Amino acid sequence: MAVHLHVASAYSLRYGVATPRALAERAAELGMGSLALTDRDGLYGAVKHVQACRAAGIGPILGADLTMPGERRAVVLAVGGTGWRSLCRLVTAAHSAVRGSPVTSRELIGAHAAGLVVLLGPASDVGQAIADRLPDLAARRLAAWRESAEVVIEIVDHHGAGDGHRAARMLALAREAGVPAVLGNAVRYLSPGDHPVAQVLDVTRRLVPLHRRHLDDQTGQAYLKSEAEMRRVAELSCGPGAAPGEVERLLADTRELAERCVLDPARDLGMDRVHLPDVTGDPYERLVARCEDGLVRRDLTRGGPGRGGPGRSSRHTAAEVRAHLDHELGIIRRKGLAAYFLTVADAAALIRERGIRCAIRGSGAGSLVNYLLGIGDLDPLRHDLVMERFLADSRPGLPDIDLDVESARRLEAYRALFERFGQNNVACVSMMETYRARSALRDVGNAVGLPPHEIDAIAKAFPQIQARQIRAALHELPELRQSNLAQGHLDVIFRIAERLDGLPRHIAMHPCGVLLSNATLRDRTAVEQSMAGFPMSQFDKEDVEAMGLLKLDVIGVRMQSAMAHAVAEIARVTGEHVDLEAVPHDDGPTYEMIRTSRTLGCFQIESPGQRELVGKLQPRTLADLVIDISLFRPGPVNADMVTPFLESRHGLRQPDYPHPDLVPVLQESLGVVVFHEQVLRVLDIMTGCGLSDAEAARRSLATEAGQEQVSEWFRELALARGYDEPTVERVWRVLTAFGAFGFCKAHAASFALPTYQSAWLKRHHTAAFYAGVLTHDPGMYPKRAILDDARHFGVPILPLDVNRSAETWHVEPVSQGASTAAEPPPSRCGGLSPLEKHCASTAAEPPPAHCGGCGGSSPCEKNCTAGIRVALNEVKGISRAEVERIVGERDVRPYSSLRDFWRRARVSRPIAERLVMAGAFDDLAGEGVSRRDLLCRLGALDRATVAAARVIEGQLPLDCDEFGQFVEKIPAGELPEMTPAEMVEAELAILGMDVSRHVLSFYDGLLDALGVVRARDLPGRPAGAEVLVAGVKVATQTPAVRSGQRVIFATVDDATGPVDATFFESVQDRCAATVFGCWLLVIRGRVRHPGMRAVTLNATACWDLVSLYEEWRRGGLPAVRHLMAAADRVGTGPRAGSRIIYANGFAMSPYADIGHAGGAVKRPPGRLWHASGGSSG
Amino acid sequence: MTRVFGDPVDVWVTDGRPVRFVWRGRLYTVRRVLEHWVTTRDWWREQQPDEEPAGEREFWRVEATPDTEIGVYELRHDTATGDWMLSRVWD
């Protein structure tokens, strides 16, 4: 039986082609008893290989193909547990010298030789000496190896020119030296037909175009050969003149080595148990004691009403709390996880001690123990959460606890963990970035030598889909059908690109996973440096779990950073210390604001779909928000739970309960099953199985086979408990429709908290809220949309100013008197006047009212006079050091002039120019000096600096008095001021947002001529009316919807508010390319009133505003109408895209929820409205 | 000296290896196979690549003789099309 000892999987980045699973399955098909995985310089695929071998019923062998100096290589294989430990440490050592370029030496292998066998093949130093016909040198090198480690000679013959002769000489060397020889095939792919992919990877790795001289694989023979094929290789390698039995001996030695190297996953790799950090003392006793402390600290020993946190009233008595705790502790004790909880509690406390905001997310919030230990701040009893969703006797493996921390301080949290648990006992988890359509097209395009701009155009034309969908997408997506990409000569590129699908291409640090273990961690995983300098395991999160290692997810959440920034700003400006955790959860004005859907910037509820839903749902409590967040998911949408819930909620129908017994469970959601927790309780009530088994049953519902099993079990038990047939049937239908799509209530509740907190900040500390959101950019909208929202909420936007702008967005009090005095000329703050108009107009509308003029409450009035100051960080290309110098020098003494700034802040000239263009010196320069004058002066200063440096050679300090004489004089008013349009253009180019006035205002003439309706006037339009709207695109989404169509939701903003438009598949042929490709849009659609106050459009057509404007200037209104009519005729009519149909009948477009074609929406495109071009749709 | 040709030849194959070939009307008998190797096709340079760029080129460097005089000949075999070609001659 043949065996492959030298096999690279796709985890040999840009080298191997096949997945470990495919390799193991093929090996089993070929009747092989074991298979090695020897990836290049890494163990990235090791766990997957072991699992794949187990599934295929063959023995796993692990090793690595290591890079040696001088482009040489050596393969090492692990024998037993000792070998595996050596292998982990050797790979770690190979990576420790230079990040990203692992290198091993003979000495290094010698230092880790215990349990390792070294295979010296054609790429080894011995093999190279043989190839160079230097047999003596080869023998000396072999002798040196034998002193360092156990070695065997590896014979490889890929049938390339000269391969056969070299193999024969290698074999002769082995025989002479008395070293065993084994046969390998240096496998890179499964089948002979895969070699083009390997060849593309060869040139991609080297960053060269495809040419024979750049290829490692010249012969297409590096596939997983069968036993017969390997025997043929052996015969050819031994040559016609070989001694009798030589072929058999070679094959037998290969088998023998393989048998020695087969690893036992449990005994050798420790995959049968968990490896938790060391805890002193008896962990369970300590856990119980900590929980007792927690009961006191959380004030849960008394029970009854009045206890607990802000605005809470409890339904649970002290005895109930105690019973619940004992139940949880029982599970933890039986599973032996006390040390796990203590460790996580330690970690959470550590993070909080540093003043980093930290919240628990996910199912862990359902555990009372987590609450008592201070891991989470959500009382599970109050929210009716159950522990079993998180940890149950029936749940295998380690539970998952996720912690949300401020994104800006995530690495600080990591560093704290490394300090506390020890550098060698902690590692970050890695993840493999894989090829997707765009990256695959880029790499293949480069390999075949396509011009870079063409590659760019092709790659950007594709949405962010998987590479294997490339050709399907070409036919199905309207925006690609019109692109002419599906032409013959590109076909080969698309074909190869598809085959790169899913191959790993880059190792990166997992965004949140941290491994906490004990001193044996480095024996269990190879570790390398991440880009940020953290030790990073080569295992991904699934591998880590399989290896029994504890992974804590520490997730950076931008909203937490945004809120921390807002709270810090409130303290800085007013001295008031806001404790968000202590804010009552029943603040009326906050819910009032949420109910009007003015929730841009708020956590979780800012997307167009969510704004529509909160408008319909009209939340009044935190529990309503929990339900809202849970409903806005594919599952509830699919099972059509939203409509009955909303109808019951608004009293349009009676809540519908399948059985009176289920009323207590389903009451909170008015008869609709929304939460996983409800599924558990329904199963428990109907069958009496207990929550633990109910959780096991719930997890089985995810698969069709599982559903069948559970179905039988459920019916039997429910009927036995006396429920009648129709009830059982009905409940079962609900449960299966709910499927595995529903939402964990604990998760929703832990999301509802920051949702409420962010909305509360927006309502009561509006300016500080925007400062936080603009600094940390947590949401889906571009900053300019947030800025526009701030204007609508009456927050003055203060322009960039070198004497006032800070590194980040700051709140700045604007006193009414001062603002009139210091008010810049109207051209610069045109935004202010429509803003005031808007405030006045909202006064007539329903609440919320936020500025003094709109009659807000007293904290509101205080905020009305608080503006936000544009941050220095927003200036394109500015470096951290430059920002620090600008702020640092200013703190010493404010800048007195441009020259003063130039001398002291020492920023680069392009940055100084951008600051000038963005108006950062307007206030300093005063009236009559235009930005153009300032630019000119800046040039003079720069020339003088260069001249001074040259003439005096740096002897004379730059800030000496004589310095002035070198500078040319530029009189004020020499050059004309920029027009408002030029200013906005500069702002968009430099800051990425229109600060002084809204971009769209420049098109007012055309828009009025066309009769375009503004966002603020839309609610007054009757349903079904056809209108034109226009605006700047702020978001496009293609979420999963019930019909399975790919629906494009686009949001544009027109200075009076956002307009949401929906493009169904029937219009996408003529609209999709424009929607995704253009920044300024004109949309025609029919008005729809889905909610109380919400308005959306069903779009029927759309155009690029820039093209229409060009046309208008050229030929007036008739020309525009002509162009619009022409665009209407384009298109081939509706064509149904493909659908993914789920087991429960839920259909979904394969293109739902993916990044779309074209550039990102977050920043305006490079070319702006004065440039022509762009298709008209 | 080496001469490079690209002439099509007819080849008789036994046991997977060439035994006789006809080049420019003369019959050559293969005495010994000196070397045999394969390469993949330059699929990326082809105008109309096939759906699967499989198939390879097989090279045979052989000692062969039309009469008494022995020369070294390199035969090229395209496994996809089955064509044979005499690529080089040393004589």
What does the model show?
- Chain A contains 48 helices and 23 strands.
- With 1177 residues, chain A is an alpha/beta fold.
- Among the domains of chain A are: 65-260, TIM Barrel (Alpha-Beta Barrel); 436-502, Arc Repressor Mutant, subunit A; 579-639 and 748-764, DNA polymerase, domain 1; 640-740, no CATH class; 789-996, no CATH class; 999-1148, Beta Barrel (OB fold (Dihydrolipoamide Acetyltransferase, E2P)), CATH 2.40.50.
- In chain A, helix 2 (46-56) links the parallel strand 1 (34-40) and strand 2.
- Chain B has no helices and seven strands.
- A seven-stranded antiparallel sheet of chain B has the order 1-7-6-5-4-3-2, with no helix packed on it.
- In chain B, strand 5 (56-65) and strand 6 form a beta hairpin.
- The radius of gyration of chain B is 14 Å and the shape is globular.
- The mean pLDDT of chain B is 84.
- Classes of the chains: A alpha/beta (1177), B mainly beta (91).
- Chains A and B meet through helix 7 and helix 8 of A and strand 4 of B.
